[in-house]
Amino acid sequence: MGAPGSVWYYAPNKVAPIIFIILFFISGSMHAWQAIKHKSWRTTLLLPWAALLMISGFAVRLAGAYNTSKLSYVIASTVLVMSGPPVYALINYLILSRILYYIPYLAPMHPGRVATTFVGLDGVCEILIGNGAWRMANSSMTDAQRKVGANMVKASLCLQAALFGAFGLLAAQFHHRANKAGVLKKDLKVLLCVMYVSATIVTIRCIYRLVEYIEGWDSSIYQNEVYFWIFEASIMFINTALLNMWHPGKRLPKSNSVFLARDGVTERRGPGWEDDRPWIVTMFDPFDLWGLVKGNDKKMQFWDMSDEDLERARLDKKNNKRSVAAGAFDPFHLWGERGYIGKHLTKNKKAGRRGGEELVQAVHAGEAKSSGRDVRNAV
């Protein structure tokens, strides 16, 4: 509880940070090792990063425990520890996205748009937390300034809770479809259960933080350190340990192009389910409602193609793959023959050339007819 001269509102525990630094270091190292072993960096790269954020936050907290009057330790520790759970949330979004790539014909929405939509909004949460946490923890600021920071954190936590609600509904809809179709393998069932538990853990932690900031700095939750070690440190360690015991990389294919056939047994390799729309467009129209109206969804159903058609689709994708330079200079893929804007310009140019060629042919045909009439008249 209260400690004279401490900017933490209490005398910080000096043993607990060491314990959790060791626990998260072991967990993060195992995540990195399993990512290498299962070649699953694309899906699980952020697991070691999330652990590193938590380790850094506890390390700064440990330093603050020996210098309780230094405000910078409080601010840095708060920002780092608050930044870890949203990364764990982001990992769940990537896991669901990869599962939908694996069974694309039952996906409620495009797998890539699951990533761009939820990850993009999760990025907004990180920005709000980063800006709000340091204001809120900075006791040298006025109450009004700290309240602004607390409101930013509360807004972030509310957005996280809403995201997890939408995420849960999306996952449950897919789960129901897959169960009904009888295509859920044992590994996928395990992975979905792990994902649900992980999402629940992060949501519980989110609710704890929300209650803490709603009640304010004078509340027993904010001024009693035991709540932090239970609902922040311990619960997030359970989450990272869970993802280590049932590592996603072990249960998912290495590539997005591998998908499960409708028989629920055969694995096939396709071109991958691409979305050539700019990232900013996918954010505002994640379900591609305009594409549904135009019938674009029917054009992408590669999962019902023959093996020969799949091979042709893979070769076509390989030949039209964008270079690293093109991705760097045109990240939204606006230009070029397949670009969101460029393809319309190319189409108009081709239509113009065809029109010109037809006009020339018509002129030549007219001249030929006229020449034929002149010859007949002369005869």
Task: Please give a handful of descriptors for the protein shown.
379 residues, mainly alpha, Rhopdopsin 7-helix transmembrane proteins, two-stranded antiparallel sheet, 16 helices, 73% helix
What does this structure look like?
The chain crosses the membrane at residues 15-33, 45-66, 154-176, 188-211, 226-246. It contains 16 helices and 2 strands. It has helices at 16-38, 41-44, 46-65, 71-102, 111-137, 143-181, 186-215, 220-223, 225-245, 248-251, 279-284, 289-294, 296-299, 307-319, 324-329, 342-378; strands at residues 258-260, 267-269. A hairpin with a 6-residue loop joins β1 (258-260) and β2.
Count of DSSP H/I helices: 16
**N-end to C-end Cα span:** 119 Å
Instruction: Write down the Rg.
Output: 28 Å
- Summarize the amount of helix as a percent range: over 70%
CATH architecture label name of the largest domain = Up-down Bundle
What does the secondary structure layout of this molecule look like, with pairings?
Blueprint lengths: L15 H23 L2 H4 L1 H20 L5 H32 L8 H27 L5 H39 L4 H30 L4 H4 L1 H21 L2 H4 L6 E3 L6 E3 L9 H6 L4 H6 L1 H4 L7 H13 L4 H6 L12 H37 L1
Antiparallel strand pairs: 1-2
Helix pairs in contact: 1-3, 1-9, 3-4, 4-5, 4-6, 4-7, 5-6, 6-7, 7-9
Pfam families: RTA1 (PF04479)
Protein name: RTA1 domain protein
Membrane topology: Multi-pass membrane protein
